[in-house]
Design a protein that fits this description.
single chain; globular; alpha+beta; about 240 residues; 6-stranded antiparallel beta sheet
């Protein structure tokens, strides 16, 4: 007999002091703990899509990435700095709408997000070994150990690791002493969209960025709430 559990339908998110979005409240409080739960915003997810492109020739599977994230569209502002999101019936990789992506970490060790992290780690190691002439081939364990050490340092300092940063640390990883060649267009994009915000005026611009705003008319923004179907942990 299948177990009965709440369906993940909505979440309330806030923009943190680190200019990342964090979950404040979530509809399924049984399987999800909002404490320290991060969510990836539309611009960040678009950047991740760009970063995985070079991995395709090494066997990257976009379906693994799509399964790792639960898509949410913007519904409305519920309070100053708090935005209500609703789950939508769309593939986060294929949608033309501006969607937030919640990593599916209900099962942190064997769930879809864990599979995605394992997958991009393997693909990144293949790319690096193909790009550089290492004396000895880079191993998955070496990459994982270095990233894990950095995460442990953040934990000791009491800093929550946003899952966007965890993914970026893998997709941008290069062993010490080596450097990837960068295209000038890539540098311009990074400097334009992902540079650190240094003052209150820039922070206000980020918070009110047109890509993260919601439409007054719900019919115009094309958000369709998630209806019938299994919760993410029953997939």
């Amino acid at each position: 007999m299948p177990k009965s559990s709440p369906i993940l339908e909505w979440s309330i998110v806030r923009l943190g002091d680190d200019y990342n979005w964090w979950v404040q409240e979530i509809s399924d409080s049984v399987h999800w703990d909002p404490d320290g739960l991060s969510i990836i915003d539309p611009r960040q997810f678009a950047h991740l899509i760009e970063l995985v492109e070079p991995l395709r020739e090494y066997g990257f599977d976009p379906d693994i990435m799509a399964s790792a994230f639960i898509p949410f569209g913007i519904d409305k502002e519920v309070d100053d700095g708090l935005v209500r999101l609703v789950r939508v019936k769309e593939n986060v990789l294929e949608s033309e709408d501006q969607l937030f992506a919640l990593p599916d970490i209900v099962d942190e060790e064997n769930g879809p997000y864990a599979d995605f992290i394992d997958h991009i780690t393997k693909m990144r190691v293949k790319l690096l070994n193909d790009t550089f002439e290492f004396e000895q081939s880079l191993t998955i364990d070496e990459l994982e150990d270095e990233i894990r050490e950095e995460q442990n340092n953040n934990f000791i300092e009491g800093s929550a690791v946003h899952l966007y940063d965890e993914i970026i640390s893998i997709l941008d990883y290069v062993p010490a002493g080596w450097e990837m060649e960068k295209d000038e267009d890539d540098d311009a994009l990074a400097n334009d969209e992902f540079e650190d915000v240094e003052d209150d005026e820039d922070a206000a611009k980020l918070k009110n960025d047109v890509s993260l705003r919601w439409e007054d008319d719900e019919e115009e923004d094309g958000i369709e709430e998630y209806g019938d179907g299994p919760p993410p942990d029953e997939a």
